[in-house]
Amino acid sequence: MVIACGALAAHLREIITRRGWRVELHCLPALLHNRPSQITPDAERIARRALARGRRVALAYADCGTYGALDGVCARLGLRRLPGLHCYDVLAGPSRVQALFDTEPGTYVLTDFLVRSFRRTVLAELGLDRYPQLWPDYFGHYRRVVWLAQRPDPALTAEAERVAAMFGLPLTIVETGTARLERELACLVGEAAAGGTPAGPAAADTGAGGAAAGMAAANLAGAGEGGAG
Q1: What are the pLDDT digits (tens) for 130-155?
Q2: φ, ψ of residue 111 in degrees (nearest 5)
Q3: N- to C-terminal Cα distance for the chain?
Q4: How many contiguous H segments (helices) and E segments (strands) does the chain have?
Q5: What are phi and psi of 41, to 5 degrees?
Q6: How many CA atoms lie within 13 A of 8 on its CB side?
Q7: pLDDT digits 0-9 by tens, 168-206
């Protein structure tokens, strides 16, 4: 079983299906990134249940604002997780992400998930659809918008430009693809999924999917701290 952030769900399902891994995917709501203290107990509860059923378990989370709590779960239960502080590190690489913030600390980072869901998962969740006058309080200190693009297409690019326009800032597009995520996921589960005890139907998704919100917390928390999956 892979216990994953809902913000990565679509990419993970595609990778697992394409690779033919027999992996049960359980996605927690991406909205938990607004309450990162809840990620660890939820993930641990699901992991313990899976281990009791004889499943192999991995966490498709970076630290994600848990400040080492997920590492504690991994140590207690013998699990592994994705490397890095947040999903930006997993998608683009930590040195590349750090360079973005070193160049401009006031960088707001988007992923494909955030571009698609920004109005629902950021504006609505922060109440900015109802109280737009609060926008400067949340976002007034940003100086640019960077989209870490996994699968850019004209429609998604247009939506990313609309999001950047809400900030009144230029959009920088950094194409990352999903190769790094796939490589890290393979390190977590590839060998076991290919040759170990079957964990259930290929890419069976038993979780909450990626419909909930979440990665706004990473941006609001600042460059190096908050997690995004």
Answers
A1: 999 999 999 999 999 999 999 999 99
A2: -120, 175
A3: 17
A4: 12, 7
A5: -65, -35
A6: 35
A7: 999 999 999 999 999 999 999 865 454 433 333 334 445
